[in-house]
Specification:
The structure holds two protein chains of two kinds.
Chain A: E1 4-16, E2 30-42, E3 46-50, H1 57-64, E4 72-77, E5 80-81, H2 87-96, E6 97-100, H3 114-124, H4 130-143, H5 160-172, E7 178-182, H6 190-207, E8 210-215, H7 218-224, E9 227-232, E10 235-240, H8 242-247, H9 252-260, H10 301-305, E11 311-312, E12 317-318
Parallel strand pairs in A: 3-8, 3-9, 6-7, 7-8
Antiparallel strand pairs in A: 1-2, 1-4, 4-5, 9-10, 10-12, 11-12
Helix pairs in contact in A: 3-4, 3-5, 4-5, 5-6
Chain B: E1 4-17, E2 20-33, E3 37-41, H1 48-56, E4 64-66, E5 71-74, E6 77-78, H2 84-90, E7 95-98, H3 102-105, H4 112-123, H5 128-141, H6 147-150, H7 160-172, E8 178-182, H8 190-207, E9 210-215, H9 218-224, E10 227-232, E11 235-241, H10 242-247, H11 252-259, H12 299-303, E12 308-312, E13 315-318
Parallel strand pairs in B: 3-9, 3-10, 7-8, 8-9
Antiparallel strand pairs in B: 1-2, 1-4, 1-5, 5-6, 10-11, 11-13, 12-13
Helix pairs in contact in B: 4-5, 5-7, 7-8
The chains are: A alpha/beta, B alpha/beta.
Chain lengths: 325, 323
């Protein structure tokens, strides 16, 4: 196993959503977006977080690069607790960890030229000399597959795929060690998605990058990741390497999730697949015990009474009282 | 083809823009057959949604225009030549629609029940009590739990999956001959998408409706549809049954698209990727629109528009390779 770059322990993020109205009944409503998660991100690998909307995958991604404060827990980046960094150490961490967002339309300032968008992190981190900075910008643009003559254009003059390349160039600007890709290819068309996925893969090889890849798309995750963490309502329900996990999922939820993915092959149209009933419950008052029990066909009393622990080793684990064989 | 219920012939929908004429849909022809699900698949900007809008007479005015040579035949009437009033009687009654975003297409200030009863009251002049009874029946059919209570709920009180079920019920309630479903599951989570697709298939089989299913997702096409039209830059490039298309994708665009899909059921080392991007429709290149991205492009491809070639029965490809 490769050495650990970043690890999270007991991470929790709660949001207080109780009514602040004077006349409201005194009742505290708390969204438990991330509820006690341990995660280990080895150097040079791609770790994927998958799950449906509202499962807390983006919140976890943001916690892990300290974009938001945790309610509880700690995260160690190269041995240092990222939530208590000060001064120079904090600045160094910000350089080492960056993020690519889902929506390249919303994440780029429309009034800035591309060269300044990509150059902004460089400026912030002290590259004051504009000649030097623009030379670096040009280099970043060509690495990300953008024509350097576009440096003076504005974001609206680019297509979605090109905008995502700008986002990638910007994320790469400070030679980071870790990049969080938050649904980085979800908004793109298939043919463009393939281009960006391949770019991310080749950049990883060239610069020894570590990715935390957040996605709802299990096919994309299988292609890009080394370890997959499956999340449901703020918890990790299962993790493992994609090959084994996809072939023999242990948690019923993972199985349902995989069965639900449409396969582009009509000969598999009539394969046996399980379709899960019902909707994802609210994260405000999640079900007791196992959170998946309300939709799980094999749930019994024990599932409501006792929360299953994540059982396994460093390679794979599953949180279910009655794992599938 | 005698059992075609909707015949689209040489449909052209153009848009006037400041930079020139944009041929969003440019001369497409295909049929929709009763009891079948026909897919219209393509990437963003390929003109698939605008095709749906053209069929329903909902092309944004005044910028958009269906060109005079276009024909859309439905029950011996050319929909493109009908007056707005006659069209309004067909729309939502004999041809209905399911949209992508159920939150924006349901009216937030009316209850689910009222919205479900509306087409029945307007199109079929039903009494309130009858309409209510039928609406309830359809809510049950799309398996909305506790339908009685849901009749008096507002759209914001329902989850995305439930809203889409309501949309399906609403589209079905007048027993239309054709349903146009525009990316009906794209905004939903996969487990909910699986539920909705199954439901759509079940209901379609029960009522023997024809569905035009618009999507960008080839997985969903393989899973659900019978026939497929692949669109690229406003034109249909390949037309076949689902089995033929996935077995033998013949247009270089279709083949490239299938190879660039990451698979949940297989390991891929390096994805194939189609270079470049969709051309700007305002200054479309001469010849084949895919030529600039096509690995097999010949000189001829850049000069003349490719012919429509029938490579096997029911499998049409618009490409010079098969001439």
């Amino acid at each position: 196993m490769a050495e650990t770059l970043l690890s999270g322990k007991g991470l929790k993020k709660y949001y207080d959503v109780s009514a602040k109205n004077l006349f409201a009944k005194k009742k505290s409503d708390v969204v438990k977006a991330v509820d006690g998660i341990d995660i280990n991100i080895p150097k040079g690998k791609t770790i994927a977080l998958v799950g449906e909307s509202g499962c807390g995958k983006s919140t976890l991604g943001r916690l892990l690069i300290h974009l938001i404060e945790p309610t509880e827990g700690e995260a160690l980046f190269e041995g240092k607790d990222i939530y208590h960094l000060k001064g120079r150490d904090e600045k160094a961490f910000r350089k080492d960890a960056s993020i690519i967002f889902q929506d390249p339309y919303a994440s780029l300032n429309p009034r800035m030229k591309v060269k300044d968008l990509i150059g902004e992190p460089l400026l912030t981190h002290g590259m004051k000399d504009s000649k030097e900075r623009y030379a670096k910008v040009a280099e970043l643009m060509s690495i990300s597959g953008l024509k350097t003559e576009y440096a003076n254009r504005y974001p609206h003059q680019f297509s979605g795929g090109q905008r995502q390349r700008i986002g990638i160039a910007r994320a790469l600007a400070l030679n980071p060690k870790l990049i969080v890709c938050d649904e980085a290819v979800s908004a793109l068309d298939v043919s463009i998605q393939a281009q960006i996925l391949n770019l991310l893969k080749s950049l990883q090889r060239a610069y020894d990058l570590t990715y935390l890849f957040i996605s709802h798309d299990l096919s994309v995750v299988r292609y890009i990741s080394d370890v997959v963490y499956v999340m449901y309502l703020g918890k990790i329900v299962e993790y493992g390497d994609p090959k084994t996990l996809y072939a023999s999922p242990k948690h019923p939820y993972t199985r349902f999730l995989l069965d639900a993915v449409p396969i582009p092959d009509p000969s598999q149209k009539n394969r046996t697949k399980m379709i899960v009933e019902g909707d994802i419950p609210s994260a405000i008052n999640p079900p007791s015990g196992c959170r998946f029990r309300t939709r799980c066909p094999q749930a019994v009393e024990k599932c409501a009474a006792e929360e299953p622990k994540l059982v396994g080793d460093t390679v794979s684990a599953c949180a279910c009282h009655f794992p599938l064989v | 083809m005698s059992d075609a219920i909707l015949e689209i012939k040489n449909l052209k929908t153009y848009f006037k823009t400041r930079k020139g004429l944009n041929p969003a849909v440019d001369g497409i022809s295909f049929n929709i057959e009763a009891g079948k699900i026909t897919a219209l698949v393509g990437e963003s900007g390929s003109g698939k949604s605008m095709t749906a809008m053209s069929i329903l007479g909902l092309v944004p005015q005044p910028a958009g225009k269906i060109m005079p040579e276009s024909e859309i035949w439905f029950e011996d009437q050319d929909l493109t030549k009908l007056s707005e009033r006659t069209l309004a009687k067909i729309r939502g009654n004999e041809i209905s629609m399911i949209f992508q975003e159920p939150m924006t297409s349901l009216n937030p200030v009316y209850t689910i029940g009222k919205q479900l009863m509306e087409p029945l009251r307007i199109h079929q002049k039903m009494s309130k009590a009858d309409a209510r009874a039928l609406a309830l029946k359809y809510l049950e059919m799309v398996r909305v739990p506790d339908p009685e209570r849901r009749m008096s709920s507002y759209p914001h009180q329902l989850s995305g999956g439930l809203r889409q079920r309501v949309m399906i019920a609403m589209a079905m309630v007048c027993k239309p001959k054709v349903i146009i479903a525009d990316e009906p599951t794209t905004a939903l989570d996969v487990t909910i998408q699986a539920q909705i697709l199954k439901l759509l298939k079940d209901v379609q089989e029960q009522l023997n409706t024809a569905i035009l299913f618009i999507t960008h997702d080839l997985g969903v096409v393989a899973e659900l549809c019978d026939d497929v039209c692949v669109m690229y830059a406003g034109q249909i490039v390949e037309k076949a049954t689902v089995e033929m298309l996935f077995e033998n994708p013949s247009h270089p665009y279709t083949a490239g698209l299938l190879k660039s899909l990451p698979r949940v059921d297989d390991d891929v080392d390096m994805l194939y990727s189609i270079e470049g991007m969709v051309p700007n429709l305002i200054n479309i290149p001469e010849g084949c629109r895919f030529a600039s991205r096509c690995p097999k492009a010949m000189e001829k491809c850049r000069e003349k528009e490719p012919p429509k070639v029938m490579i096997e029965t029911g499998h049409e490809v618009h490409c010079w390779l098969y001439e």
